[in-house]
């Protein structure tokens, strides 16, 4: 079973992720991970901290001569801006954040809660997901995340072409959409929001292509891949909704317009989809908790950041008197970063399902099992 845990606080000395169950024999591309860490720090509307941090991956255990050993991987990302012990306690919790409920639950300080609840922790989740993406690429599986909505403005899918061409378009965009020609419009919205002392959320989409039929299972509710993915995405800070395929729209139209008809194309029998094709992909690549050979399509809705430069009403914890909430250094809009984070938590769950289906002690053994499965499945 491939899984991971994270440790470390926003203003602690380092963030740590421990990955267990990763197969041996994968050569780690550190620069690919570091590129994704830098993308997570980017995007128009980010705050001042991103100018202080230069996130880079260190692997402390589980690698020998650049290749995974099959033993647990310990990932580390150093915090350049660490000062947890020197920071003052917050007196007034911020609405929408973990401040109030966390301090009550743990009978402790708001500061201790907010530093762990901070999305800074997602840096090592991106690192873990980037390593998982390198494993997926060994099997021809590619992922991509991008922004489709920023506040009230919808971006949509303005770039045609394959996933590489779309990735190139996204990487030209200051807000990580597929429509870089509209960047000025979105930047203007973010600037106006900043002037008002407010914040913006949005919607991101992740696609995974090259998937075989049969990752995940229908046999147990807690092993269904759609459930695992939804949990991983919802666990990203500020995500308030997850859709797969048509998502909520599927509840509003008749079944004849929802379900993807099944066709067969013998010329595509050699592909991971085994020649089974669909004229539509309303299911988003998942049926019965399992991949169906079509691209995986997931969307996540991110609420606006809770820390406002013009704070909302709150109370002072000591005497319960009404006051404005505390202000902490923050972003105006971090939807671009969210697209990076969601892509990588999805990638990790897909890689975990791949290991679960074809897992062995090494990548080489996984390849052999994968090819045997495709051969037997094609005969079916």
Brief summary:
By secondary structure, the protein is an alpha+beta fold. The protein has 10 helices and 18 strands. Strand 14 and strand 15 form a beta hairpin.
Give a written overview of the molecule:
A 5-stranded antiparallel sheet has the order 8-7-9-16-11. It has a 4-stranded antiparallel sheet with strand order 1-2-6-3, covered by helices on one side. It has a 3-stranded antiparallel sheet with strand order 10-15-14. The radius of gyration is 22 Å and the shape is globular. The mean pLDDT is 93. It has a single domain, classed as Chorismate synthase AroC (Chorismate synthase, AroC fold, 4-Layer Sandwich), CATH 3.60.150.10. It has helices at 30-41, 49-52, 99-105, 110-117, 122-137, 163-172, 183-195, 225-234, 335-358, 363-379; strands spanning 3-7, 14-20, 58-61, 63-64, 67-68, 73-78, 142-150, 153-154, 202-209, 213-216, 239-244, 263-264, 276-277, 286-287, 290-292, 296-302, 313-315, 322-324. It is built from 10 helices and 18 strands. With 380 residues, it is α+β, with helices and mostly antiparallel strands. A hairpin with a 6-residue loop joins strand 1 (3-7) and strand 2.
